[in-house]
């Protein structure tokens, strides 16, 4: 990277750049001393090639730890430093405690990650404090981070266009001079029975094999299925025609799983155009954009819902589709929901109450759906929390609080099964007593390479526990074609059979 910077910086200078901006968000993490030393050495090596140009180093997404702040602001050859003062409120105290003379301070007071308008009453007071520290001509009003996390432009929300206006307005101003969720009790996230007692009752009722097979989420969203969604949304087909088409797709998926001898079936989610968006559309307190696309990763974009008020569930979300699928088979059918933390972390969240309060409201809505699924005799319910890590604070000191209310929210929904990838399973090998069943994702369905049954079995053997181990392909199937999925799932089922055989052999050797 240093070599690349040495090549790029002269080109930028030659192109007329007078400022060069370096993003260093990793500094907000609790870095070891040797990593901070490496950071200092890296910029020392770049010092000569950076001469003759203004350099600003930006951090964002959280507070900068005191030691990292000291290392950062001690860099030579750097003209200014930028800090996130929205998600990094404690950083303000570090700046008050000392900021290098003659350096520029880029104050990130406009939220770059949310769509709500800036507090134009509170931000100026923060800027005045900073101005008294660094001087009027060394203070730069800025966004808290890149604006790629929010939308471009729309009416009364503060999207990119409005946030640029907010930055300008603040700079000019400087130049001139809820109920049910709140009442959640501790018992709302604790089961009345132990894990072992529940596992025993579940096994008696469900009669699952030693290694039950199931699929995590969606089946492929085909071109025909997308066409049906678009036509229904544009009112080119009736609701009756739409329901009929979705039922036909569900039936196709159910028959395929029966053919492959999957133990616990899923309905394939053909009714869902977007993972979080579909659930949010069924809940109150959410608003949506038509073309509000935001970059998620690479070229993948999503349309995050907007949480503007109290969240509740006015009517069931997936009960109809789950029971429809259940009526098509004699096998167990699994209901699949999106968890409260994932819905929260994949949305633009209101900023007039703590995030955990909003999350509890979503959890109560999901809890209502779980109870209705149970009444409809959907005996296995999966709740996806794939965005749990997305909201995890970068600073270790703040992580325990987040995990506390996030896990609380999840437990409020009354679900007790998790899915884990292979890396996370190392937690259990270090002595954590989890006790319930675990579901390692054993086959990467996003990869074009399909491993053999022996290969998957070898990788999975070390994960097996005395409790039920669910067998899952990794992630969702919706981005693939039915033909590729069928081949992968055949190997997937063969692997489960192979592992059951190996387990039986091990038990036989043990008792002989």
TrEMBL record:
Name of this protein: 5-methyltetrahydropteroyltriglutamate--homocysteine S-methyltransferase
Taxonomic lineage of the native organism: Eukaryota, Viridiplantae, Streptophyta, Embryophyta, Tracheophyta
Cofactor(s) recorded in Swiss-Prot or TrEMBL: Zn(2+)
An example Gene Ontology biological process: methionine biosynthetic process
Function noted in UniProt: Catalyzes the transfer of a methyl group from 5-methyltetrahydrofolate to homocysteine resulting in methionine formation.
Gene Ontology cellular-component annotations: cytosol
Domain spans labelled Cobalamin-independent methionine synthase MetE N-terminal: 6-132
Coiled-coil stretches noted in the UniProt entry, renumbered to this chain: none
EC numbers for this chain: 2.1.1.14
Signal peptide (UniProt feature, chain positions): none
Gene Ontology MF annotations: 5-methyltetrahydropteroyltriglutamate-homocysteine S-methyltransferase activity; methionine synthase activity; zinc ion binding
Pathway(s) annotated for this protein in UniProt: Amino-acid biosynthesis; L-methionine biosynthesis via de novo pathway; L-methionine from L-homocysteine (MetE route): step 1/1
Family listed: Belongs to the vitamin-B12 independent methionine synthase family.
């Amino acid at each position: 990277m240093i070599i690349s910077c040495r090549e790029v910086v002269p080109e930028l200078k030659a192109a007329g750049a007078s400022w060069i901006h370096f993003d260093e968000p990793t500094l907000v993490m609790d870095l070891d001393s040797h990593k901070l030393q490496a950071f200092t050495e890296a910029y020392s090596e770049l010092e000569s090639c950076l001469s003759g140009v203004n350099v600003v180093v930006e951090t964002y997404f959280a507070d900068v730890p005191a030691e990292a702040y000291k290392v950062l602001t001690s860099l030579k050859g750097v003209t200014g430093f930028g800090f996130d003062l929205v998600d990094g409120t404690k950083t303000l105290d570090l700046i008050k405690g000392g900021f290098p003379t003659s350096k520029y301070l880029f104050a990130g007071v406009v939220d770059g990650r949310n769509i709500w308008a800036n507090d134009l009453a509170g931000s100026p007071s923060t800027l005045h404090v900073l101005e008294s520290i660094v001087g009027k001509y060394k203070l730069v009003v800025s966004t808290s981070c890149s604006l790629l996390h929010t939308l471009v432009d729309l009416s009364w929300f503060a999207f990119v266009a409005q946030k640029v206006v907010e930055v300008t307005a603040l700079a000019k101003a400087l130049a001139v001079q809820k109920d049910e969720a709140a009442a959640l009790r501790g018992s709302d996230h604790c089961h009345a029975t132990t894990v072992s007692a529940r596992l025993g009752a579940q096994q008696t009722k469900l009669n699952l094999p030693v290694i039950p097979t199931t699929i995590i989420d969606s089946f492929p969203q085909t071109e025909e299925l997308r066409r049906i969604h678009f036509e229904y949304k544009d009112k080119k087909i009736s609701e009756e025609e739409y329901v009929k088409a979705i039922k036909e797709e569900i039936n196709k998926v159910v028959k395929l799983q029966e053919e492959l001898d999957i133990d616990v079936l899923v309905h394939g989610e053909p009714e869902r155009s977007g993972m979080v968006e579909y659930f949010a559309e069924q809940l109150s307190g959410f608003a949506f954009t038509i073309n509000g696309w935001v970059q998620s990763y690479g070229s993948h974009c999503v349309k995050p819902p907007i949480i503007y008020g109290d969240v509740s569930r006015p009517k069931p979300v997936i009960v109809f589709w789950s029971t429809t699928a259940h009526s098509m088979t004699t096998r167990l059918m699994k209901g699949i929901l999106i968890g409260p933390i994932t819905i929260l972390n994949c949305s633009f969240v209101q900023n007039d109450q703590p995030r955990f309060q909003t999350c509890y409201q979503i959890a109560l809505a999901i809890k209502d759906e779980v109870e209705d699924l149970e009444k409809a005799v959907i005996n296995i319910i999966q709740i996806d929390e794939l965005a749990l890590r997305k909201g995890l604070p970068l600073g270790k000191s703040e992580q325990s609080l987040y995990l506390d209310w996030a896990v609380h929210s999840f437990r409020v929904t009354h679900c007790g099964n998790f899915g884990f990838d292979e890396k996370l399973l190392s937690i259990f090998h270090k002595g954590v007593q989890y006790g319930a069943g675990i579901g390692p994702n054993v086959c990467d369905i996003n990869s074009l390479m399909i491993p053999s049954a022996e290969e998957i079995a070898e990788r999975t053997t070390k994960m097996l526990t005395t409790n039920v181990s669910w067998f899952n392909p990794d992630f969702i199937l919706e981005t693939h074609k039915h033909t590729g999925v069928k081949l992968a799932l055949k190997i997937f089922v063969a692997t489960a059979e192979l592992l059951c055989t190996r387990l039986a052999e091990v038990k036989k050797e043990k008792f002989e």
